[in-house]
Amino acid sequence: MSEYPSSFDRDDLLKCARGELFGEGNAQLPEPPMLMMDRITDISGDGGAHGKGHVLAEFDIKPDLWFFECHFPGNPIMPGCLGLDGLWQLTGFNLGWRGWTGRGYALGVGEIKLKSMVRPDAKLLTYEIDFTKAIQTRRLTMGVADGIVKVDGELAYEVKDMKVALSES
């Protein structure tokens, strides 16, 4: 389906952040420290629970990550919004991986459930995204997906109806 591989290491993700993977003006990841994954282990445009695409990715948790020091002093926790942002980042990445053009924008999320916290002693965050819709028309390029975030194998976040669009403007 795509001319791109089905897995990406950190160097590949940094190329995407610089606009070198999908081309200038197309889907782009943020640079560190806002890049919320270290690798994509599997991606497709026709896999997942609904057969409309999926992404599996990982983020190595280290005690010295920038957000632990400030959120909160004496009680460090990864902000839940960063896990959600990682899901949005990967949803937009999938649209670019499909070869669809335009810059990515998060449009919203239908439901978020925060089930557990990510603390500095955790080792690995895993993302699982399943697309429910992937739309490309003359006027609209958008992905709608459900996702979960696990910390060391335990469910941490669950989201329904994430929406990410690609826009030429």
Automatic annotation (TrEMBL):
Biological processes, Gene Ontology terms: fatty acid biosynthetic process
Entry keyword set: Cytoplasm, Fatty acid biosynthesis, Fatty acid metabolism, Isomerase, Lipid biosynthesis, Lipid metabolism, Lyase
PANTHER family per record: 3-HYDROXYACYL-[ACYL-CARRIER-PROTEIN] DEHYDRATASE, 3-HYDROXYDECANOYL-[ACYL-CARRIER-PROTEIN] DEHYDRATASE
Organism: Octadecabacter ascidiaceicola
Enzyme Commission number(s) of this protein: 4.2.1.59
Subunit composition and interactions: Homodimer.
Organism phylogeny: Bacteria, Pseudomonadati, Pseudomonadota, Alphaproteobacteria, Rhodobacterales
Gene for this chain: fabA
Pathway connected to this protein: Lipid metabolism; fatty acid biosynthesis
Protein name: 3-hydroxyacyl-[acyl-carrier-protein] dehydratase FabA
Localization: Cytoplasm
Domain of life per record: Bacteria
Family: Belongs to the thioester dehydratase family. FabA subfamily.
NCBIfam families according to UniProt: fabA, PRK05174.1
